[in-house]
Amino acid sequence: MTVIYLTALKFPIGELVATPNATETFSMETLEACLRRHADGDWGDLCKEDKTSNDRALRDGSRLFSSYEFPSRGKLWIITEADRSATTFLLPEDY
Asked: Is 52 domain-assigned?
């Protein structure tokens, strides 16, 4: 089991969960780096409207969604539930 330590988060991330596809496709280092970006409010490769929606969700407690694209491996999505109970790593086809 790997432990990821994060400090100065913009929001609680809750329990970390990953689909088998996410852990088979991306290294733990990549997952951790993307989680740090997500937890810092860097929503990755989203359109302006989706980034604005996430910024609003920080204030109103809605679900948070990030997408990070890797040319050789595809997209990694990270979703933090509205109640902040869990954050999930997944691939688009896992949704």
From this structure: yes
pTM attached to this predicted model:
0.91
Give a yes or no: residue 1 inside a domain: no
Number of neighbours of residue 39 by Cβ within 10 angstroms: 22
Contacts (Cβ under 8 Å, ≥6 apart) of 34 = 26, 44, 66, 68, 76, 78, 89
d(CA 71, CA 8): 30
Residue 39 covered by a domain: yes
Q: Tens digits of per-residue pLDDT, 48-93?
A: 999 999 999 999 999 999 999 999 999 999 999 999 999 999 999 9
pLDDT tens for 8-29 read: 688 999 999 999 999 999 999 9
Q: Give the total number of structural domains in the chain.
A: 1
